[in-house]
Design brief:
Largest sheet: none
Helix content: 55-70%
Strand content: under 5%
Structural class: mainly alpha
Number of helices: 3
Order of helices and strands: HHH
């Protein structure tokens, strides 16, 4: 069946992203989340692994910010008179909802990194979680190990 190409081969845009659905250590044509984030060399792999570590550690920073805001919010609300607490409570709930949405988005982004099924990327996610917990984890690590 002719699909309107006139029997001509379509021009290639270069190497395509390699999408694995099985665990692998191979980085040939590995794209990480976006086609523009492609591994071309050992250097690009190294820089990408560092980037994944920083991104994953950043998730712990966002969680820590959220926990700190909740603690200071509760303290602030306890100091307010009952009459004026209503408006402040609405504003703080909105901020908490925004922080929660950022955490959920961030956690699913990390899940997509892990779902490259590439061992190097998976290890970088784990190292980033380790580094992030050391730097920002002031609570139990079992509080939120799931995607969100």
């Amino acid at each position: 069946m002719d699909h309107g190409h006139g029997g001509m081969d379509m021009p290639s845009d270069g190497p395509k992203c390699n999408m694995n659905m099985l665990f692998t250590w191979d980085t040939t044509n590995l794209c990480i989340i976006f086609p523009q984030w492609r591994i071309y060399s050992t250097f690009s792999l190294f820089m990408s692994l560092i980037g994944v570590i920083v991104l994953t550690a950043g998730y712990e920073f966002v969680r820590d910010m959220s926990r700190r805001f909740e603690a200071s919010s509760a303290e602030y609300m306890n100091k307010l008179p009952r009459k004026s607490a209503g408006e402040a409570e609405k504003r703080q709930k909105l901020i908490k909802a925004v922080l929660y949405a950022v955490q959920v988005f961030y956690s699913f982004f990390i899940m997509l990194l892990f779902m490259t099924y590439n061992g190097w990327i998976m290890l970088s996610v784990a190292v980033g979680a380790f580094v992030g917990y050391l730097a920002f984890g002031n609570s139990s690590p079992t509080k939120s190990v799931a995607c969100h």
